[in-house]
Structures are given as structure tokens and as C-alpha cells.
Amino acid sequence: MLHGRPEPRGCELVSVCALIAAAGSGRRMGAGVNKTLLPLRGRPVLHHTLLAFDACEDVDEVAVIVPPQEADLARELIRGWGGLSKVNRVAGGGKTRQESVLLGLDCLDPGCDIVVVHDGARPLVRPATISRVIEAAREHGAALAAVPTTDTVKVVRHGYVAETLDRDLLWAATTPQAFRREILETRHRMAAREGRVVTDDAALVEGTGIAVKVVCGEYDNIKITTPEDLVIAEALLAARSRLAGREASGLRGGGIRVGVGFDVHRLVEGRPLVLGGVNIPFESGLKGHSDADVIIHAIADAILGACALGDIGRLFPDDDPTHAGVSSKVILEKARNLAEMAGFSVSNVDAVLIAERPKISKFVPGMQRALADILGIPEGSVSIKATTTEGMGFIGSGVGMACYASCSVVDQPLASSTGGSTDGS
Ligand code: MG
What we know:
The chain is of the alpha/beta class. It has helices at residues 45-55, 71-80, 97-106, 127-140, 181-194, 202-205, 227-249, 294-306, 312-315, 328-341, 364-375, 393-396; strands at residues 16-21, 39-40, 43-44, 61-66, 87-92, 114-119, 142-148, 154-157, 160-164, 171-180, 213-216, 256-269, 273-275, 278-280, 284-286, 344-354, 382-387, 400-411. Strands 5-4-1-6-10-7-11 form a seven-stranded mixed beta sheet, sandwiched between helices. Strands 15-12-18-16-17 form a five-stranded mixed beta sheet. A hairpin with a 2-residue loop joins strand 13 and strand 14 (278-280). Bound molecules: magnesium ion. Magnesium ion is lined by residues 263, 265, 288, 297.
């Protein structure tokens, strides 16, 4: 028990319990800690998730399933988090998600008759979505939130396309998923006996004579799996909080914000020199995990800064081998996408390269074209300048180059939700 039993509503027994699965190892996150405890806009991912369930008036109790060795720590942490009144159990999970949900079912209140299962790593779930799934489960016995697939999905065997699936029939399953308790318990115990392994709870109920109702979820109810997902989640939360602020104040956007960026790279022999997206003939090049384009790095940081979305070190960690040698144009494009996801559009950028040699003036028009193209703004809104340090310091002696950049973004009017709200059929 954590906060003690909630007050019964009249003489009713508790009827809707949420099971939050937060026992995953988070290997793809590579953070060495439970990924649901990583910070997201000032509070742990799991805290965001629990706040959504606490705010859902159809949920009576919340149980959290964590790795067994983290149960004491999680209890302690959750007790210290604000705004939670419904979390009353923290239990140790099993080796797989399926095992964890089964262990979670064992610790639920006997009076619970609807169980909502949700991934702790989906912090952007909306209380209204949880309510819709619960309502559908009350009526149909089993329901899940899903979104129509936007990608074309191929069946691939041995590296070759075997089949293209009909996209009109494809939905991507998310959580929350809700079930009448006896249905979920029976199927989980049956699967455990048979050694049947599935990747979501609805799969245990499908094909057993009980139809699983599909409720339209939201595209922004993303699962935090990689470090990049955390940055995307921050952009989405930033957009939501600005929207809420605007609704409260009656403002409609159109404000201008500015950000600054700064970067330094060392010059080494045997590397190409890439500046502002352009290859420059020179005797040495900048050293870095990516192509080390110091101008683009400073500009990308200025864009993220204008939107208060952190920095490119989080987007492209230099210990991630998948980013080795990546073109910095990809970094810039990602920064633009994140800014737009958060409701901003880049208005102009200005950069000043600090380098003793080479002279870059004849390459500047090419850089302006390349960067304007990626940012979707006119070439006249991209400014690239250069200066030396007159022979002084590490730049003057040719050890490295640096770049300062600034960026302004315009605050765009926002839609109130990225997902639909009608039932899927
Ligand atoms: Mg850099």
C-alpha cells in the first residue's frame, strides 16, 4: 500500500483499476536505469503517466509494476511525487511484460471489475482516451486504443518483400487497453500454462470468442523507447503546455522567440571539411562523431534553444554508433521537425564562423541554399558570416574552429489534439 485505500464512493466497491507496466529493462534507451524514471520536462516519465491516470475520473485505483529489485525505490520515489492520490500499490514484476501484468493482476483489489493496462513509458496518454477505452470495455468486455497506420507495411522474408498489406485494414495497437477482469485473468493464466507469449494483452483475448473493440487513440501517445523519443515527447508536451497557456490567456500565437547556439570542433588531417552543408577543399577537416559541421551544429542548437527543446547532444548522443558519420543536414532537419512539432516555425538564422583559414566567402551562397532548403525558408533568411581571431588562441593557431548562431522562430497557431476521437470500426 502506498497512500492507503481511497475513500469508497458511497457504498460502491472499487471497480476500475489501472495496471501501469514499468518493469521493462529499457535496453534500447541505453541509460542504465529504468527508462520510466528518466526526466521529461522536469519530472520522471512515469510521473507524467501516473498524473494522467490520476486525472481520469473513471479510474479508481492505480497499481504500478516495476522490476522487483526497484520496488522499494519506486515506492519511495512515487510517495514523493506530487498530485497523485490513486496510486496505492507498487509491485515487483516478472521477466517479461506478460509475466509482470499477470503478477499485477494478482495484487489488485478484489472489488476491481475492469482492469486498464498501460505502458508506463507512454507518458502522453490523455485522461479522455483512458475514459473512452474503459467505457468500451464495460460495453464489449475488451477494448484497446489504436491508430490507423500511416506507413505502408510490408511482410519481409529473408530480406525480400513477400507481401504488401492492405493499409486500410491496418491499425497500430497502443495502450491503454481495458478488459473485464475475469476475461483478462482467465486468458493470462491460460497463456502462462500453455507457454504462449504475446506482445500485448489484447492478443490474449483475440480469437477466443470475445470481440476486442478498437477505440481511436492519438498519434502523440508515443512510447518512449530511444533517447530520441524523449526529445520528441518534450516537443509534444511543450506544444500542449503552450496551447493550454494560450487558451487560458485568450492569445492566438504569432509571438517571436530567439535562441542561441555555440559549437567547437578540432581540426585534424585526413577528414573532409564540411561547413554549412558544403564540402570545402582544405588540407584538414573537423573531427567529430558526425561530419562535424560546426556551422550546422550551432544553428541546430539555436533552433532547439528558441523552442526550449534542449540541445543536439541529446538528439544525437556521441556514444550512439548509429549516428557515426551522419551528415549534419540530418541533424538540422530533425531540429526543424522538432520545432514544428512543438508549434514553431523557423523564421531566420544567423551564424558566425570563427576560423583562421580557409576563406569561406565564395562558398557562402552554396551554404545559404543548402540550409534554406532544409529549413524551408528563403535564402535571404539564412546569414553566414566569418571572422578570425587574428592569430590568437586555439582558433588562431589552427587547432580548431568555432561557430556562434542565433535563430528566431514564430509561434504558430496550434490544433488542440493530434488524434481523432471517434470510435474505430
Ligand atoms: Mg558539434
